[in-house]
Amino acid sequence: MTKIYIDGSAGTTGLRIRERLAARRDIEILTLPDALRKDEEARRARMNESDITFFCLPDAAALEAEALVTEPHVRIIDTSTAHRTKPGWHYGFAELSRGHREGLLRAKRVSVPGCHASGFLALVYPLAAGGILPADYPLVCYSVTGYSGGGKKMIAAYQDPEREEELGSPRQYGVTQQHKHLKEMQAVPGLLREPIFAPVVADYYSGMVVSVPLYRHLLNGKQTPESLREYFRNYYEGQPLMYVADEVPSFIGANTLAGKDTMEILVSGSDERILLAARFDNLGKGASGAAIQCMNLMLGVPETTGLEM
């Protein structure tokens, strides 16, 4: 029986991880009374009693929590931004490469990708790895997500019956180009510059579409929408949570995969411009589902165990 502790189990991601693990017979979830949920010594004891501890915390708290783990057998899965580009931490996106997958099998410290970053990397990393996308390509990324990605405070604001009228429309943010996912978006695929990133939050609970437009003449080789679609299909062959759409609809709904832990890759475009898109749930493959997939691989069980296909 694997002992699991979730530090930050009252947050959106922590709650979802706990709900998904509750029915697992191979998992024992270690808990604390509400009165001790923020008690440092109580948390320390639970972490060091566990086999795997999830950090579902703000960045600063996740950095502090790392110091509480002193027992060498304890493995950590961090869902915050704090450790995604930090040396000694493994980036938990198994589908990106053989190294990413095999590294999870033995990793002691794993950082779960950000939701926007997951879609961006699913599109960009394979092209960079295959030499199709130059490292100095001037990338632009557009991403629309449901409001659950903003956490409890944003969820409450959107669900407030007396909310501001503006919340009924899509809202662009990250306008200073300082979004916290940008570091991993550049570092993981080895880009020479951060992309221009335009995230948008909209009035629906969960699900997202991340898009990357490309000019054909700036890519290496004679690429077409059809050739890239086939490239992605071969790249992600055998990956149970990833699939490539045969056709792209006229409208790509961002909440289509809400409640699922899969990711869909869509490739469309014209003779001059190609549009790549990744569609998934920001709470699934973009957060708790990805964290559980990492845990499954670390434990040596089928990676889809407990996930929604």
SSE blueprint and pairings:
Blueprint: E1 2-7, H1 12-21, E2 27-30, H2 40-49, E3 52-55, H3 59-66, E4 75-78, E5 90-91, H4 98-106, E6 109-111, H5 115-129, E7 140-146, H6 151-159, E8 171-172, H7 182-187, E9 196-202, E10 208-215, H8 225-235, E11 242-244, E12 263-269, E13 273-280, H9 284-299
Parallel strand pairs: 1-2, 1-3, 3-4, 4-6, 5-6, 7-9, 11-12
Antiparallel strand pairs: 7-10, 8-9, 10-13, 12-13
Provide mean pLDDT, rounded: 96
- Tally of contiguous helical segments: 9
Strand order of the largest sheet: 8-9-7-10-13-12-11
Fraction in beta strands: 15-25%
What separation lies between the terminal Cα atoms?
25 Å
Write the element-wise H/E pattern from the N-terminal end onward.
EHEHEHEEHEHEHEHEEHEEEH
Return the structural class. Answer: alpha/beta
Helix content: 25-40%
**Uncertain segments:** none
Radius of gyration: 19 Å
* Major sheet details: 7 strands, mixed
How many distinct beta strands?
13
Which term fits the overall shape?
globular
Description:
The chain is of the alpha/beta class and 309 residues long. The protein is built from 9 helices and 13 strands. The protein has helices spanning 12-21, 40-49, 59-66, 98-106, 115-129, 151-159, 182-187, 225-235, 284-299, and strands at 2-7, 27-30, 52-55, 75-78, 90-91, 109-111, 140-146, 171-172, 196-202, 208-215, 242-244, 263-269, 273-280. A 7-stranded mixed β-sheet has the order 8-9-7-10-13-12-11. Strands 2-1-3-4-6-5 form a 6-stranded parallel β-sheet, sandwiched between helices. Helix 4 crosses helix 9. The chain is globular, with a radius of gyration of 19 Å. The model has no long low-confidence stretch (mean pLDDT 96).
